[in-house]
């Protein structure tokens, strides 16, 4: 299923921008779930997920920068209500993983109007303010109902949080942040991101509350979040086992199966 994320031909009013964002949120947040609604769910459970049902395997394994650790990447959008709702549970899960993982986030841009929030994320990261500000940004958008969708609105907001406005704007418009946006676009394309939030494990597996929900059916959001974390636990164990197999030179299960068919 495709979603109309095209930019309007005319510049929308502030009210129009808000309505447009609501439509985008609906499409983006549920895009993956609708896309996978036709996948057979036989025998799929969060504790024993099935490829193509509660998670999917990328056609091409992506390189990671985590070394011996397993890289876990969340693709998100600040204005997505489901990303906001998933954030506390995800952060707790990340803390429990300790030194086993290297965790990072990638803000997505399904259209040009998403880019100010991408710049916000990478500017805060460059200034060493991300840990302090991540929850505050979500709170401002989803609780205080601030429209942080322009450079001016974003700069005004960060200034209220004790960040020097001029320094922030300089970083926001810097070459370094622009380079981060290009890299984010490359990752978004490589991982075939068509909905958020979505979590990638070890550069090869992806899952999300929306993907899991496609097999579990209508469930409270908290249930889908918990189930997604179970799938992530299973994928972590799978990735760890596959790494050990590769390091010992033993054939992976997929290789054994392929050989048996010859």
Q: What would the keywords be for this entry?
A:
262 residues, alpha+beta, Glutaredoxin, five-stranded mixed sheet, 10 helices, globular, disordered N terminus, disordered C terminus
Question: Could you characterize what this model shows?
Answer:
This protein is of the alpha+beta class and 262 residues long. The chain is built from 10 helices and 5 strands; from the N terminus they run αββαβαααααββααα. A 5-stranded mixed sheet has the order 1-5-4-2-3, with helices on both faces. α3 packs antiparallel against α4. It is globular and about 55 Å long.
Helices and strands in order:
Blueprint (H helix, E strand, L loop, with lengths): L13 H22 L20 E2 L12 E7 L4 H17 L3 E7 L7 H12 L3 H13 L8 H10 L4 H8 L2 H16 L7 E4 L3 E3 L1 H8 L4 H28 L4 H8 L2
Parallel strand pairs: 2-3
Antiparallel strand pairs: 1-5, 2-4, 4-5
Helix pairs in contact: 1-8, 2-9, 3-4, 3-6, 3-7, 5-6, 8-9
Using the coordinates above, name the CATH class.
Answer: Alpha Beta
Helix content: 40-55%
CA-based gyration radius: 19 Å
Count of helical stretches: 10
And the CATH topology? Glutaredoxin
Name the average pLDDT: 85
Question: What is the second-level CATH architecture?
Answer: 3-Layer(aba) Sandwich
Principal-axis shape equals: globular
Q: Which sequence of SSEs, written as H and E, runs from N to C?
A: HEEHEHHHHHEEHHH
Work out the strand percent: 5-15%
Largest sheet: 5 strands, mixed
According to DSSP, the number of beta strands is: 5
Strand order of the largest sheet: 1-5-4-2-3
Helix-and-strand structural type:
alpha+beta
CATH superfamily: Glutaredoxin
Low-confidence stretches: 1-15, 26-43, 256-262
Total domains: 1
**Oligomerization category of the chains in this entry:** single chain
State the end-to-end distance.
37 Å
């Amino acid at each position: 299923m495709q979603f109309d994320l095209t930019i309007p031909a005319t510049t929308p009013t502030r009210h129009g921008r808000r309505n447009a964002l609501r439509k985008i949120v609906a499409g983006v947040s549920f895009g993956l779930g609708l896309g996978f609604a036709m996948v057979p769910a036989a025998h799929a459970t969060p504790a024993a997920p099935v490829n193509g049902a509660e998670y999917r395997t990328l056609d091409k394994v992506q390189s990671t920068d985590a070394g011996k650790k397993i890289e876990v990447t969340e693709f998100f959008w600040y204005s997505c209500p489901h990303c906001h709702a998933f954030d506390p549970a995800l952060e707790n899960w990340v803390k429990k993983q300790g030194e086993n993982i290297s965790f990072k986030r990638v803000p997505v841009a399904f259209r040009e109007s998403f880019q100010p929030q991408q710049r916000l994320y990478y500017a805060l990261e460059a200034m060493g303010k991300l840990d302090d500000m991540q929850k505050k940004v979500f709170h401002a958008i989803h609780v205080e109902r601030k429209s942080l969708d322009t450079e001016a609105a974003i700069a005004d907001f960060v200034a209220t949080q004790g960040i020097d406005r001029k320094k922030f704007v300089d970083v926001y418009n810097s070459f370094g942040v622009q380079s981060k946006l290009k890299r984010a676009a490359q990752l978004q394309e490589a991982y075939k991101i068509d909905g958020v939030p979505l979590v990638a494990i070890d550069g090869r597996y992806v899952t999300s509350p929306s993907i899991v929900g496609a097999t579990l059916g209508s469930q409270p959001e908290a249930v889908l979040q918990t189930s997604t974390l179970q799938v992530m636990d299973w994928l972590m164990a799978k990735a760890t086992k596959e790494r050990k197999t590769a390091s010992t030179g033993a054939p992976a299960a997929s290789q054994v199966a392929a050989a048996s068919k010859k």
